[in-house]
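Justification of computing resources. Each target in the renewal requires a structure prediction run like the one illustrated here; the chain below, 237 residues long, is used simply to show the kind of job we budget for.
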Amino acid sequence: MTVKYERVLLKLSGEALMGEDSYGINPRVLDFVAGEVKEVVAEGVELGIVIGAGNIFRGVAGASKGMDRTTADSMGMLATVMNSLAMQDALERNGVITRVMSAIPMQSVSEPYIRRRATRHLEKGRVVIFAAGTGNPYFTTDSAAVLRALEIDAQVVIKATKVDGVYDKDPVVYPDAKKYDSLSYDVVLQKGLRVMDASGIALAREDGLPIMVMDMAVAGNIKRAVFGEKVGTLITE
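Resulting C-alpha cells:
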C-alpha cells in the first residue's frame, strides 16, 4: 500500500488539545498526537503542522468583551507559539525531529518563518510546526493552515478536530444531524458550514487544495488519511 499524500499540512484545533479538561494542554492528548504523527512520518510523509489557540486564548472572544481586536488576535497568535512548543517537546520525546517556525520573530524559542528553509526542513524529514498564524491580526489559524499548505506545496490539509467530519448541523445538539462524506468548496460556502472560516475555504478553492476533516481522537486516522482511505469528510472541487 502506497502513500497517497507525500506532503501534508496537519491542522490541529487548540480545543482538541484540551482533551476532557476545560482549558490548557492535556499531556495525554499531546503524547497521543505525537505518537500518531510519528507513525505518519515513519511512512516517509513530509509533515507540517498548524495549531490553533482555542485552548488558551481566542481572539474573537476577547474582542467581543471589549478588547481591541488587533491586540486580542496578537495574544491569540502568541498562544499558538505556546501550543507549538508543547507539541515540539512531545514529538522530540517520541524521537521525531521537529522545528518550530514562527511568523512573529522569537529567535530565542523558534526559527523565523522562511518558506525555503521550511521546505528544506521537510525534505530532510523534519516535522515543521508553523506558529503565530500568518503573523497578522484578523486571520484565523485555519486561514494560516491553508496559506502555509499552499506555500510548502502540500497535497492536502488534514483538519483534525473533536468531530468525525462535517455535518449539516451540530451533531452534539441535534441527534438527526447528517454527516457528509464529501463536499465541494462552493457548497461549504453557500451553506455556511462551519468547517473553517470562509477565507480559508476560498483560498483552498483557488488552488484546488483538498481539505479533509476528521476526528483526531481515533487512533490511526491520520495514517489512514495519508494513505488515501475515506476518513471523515473530504472537501474538493
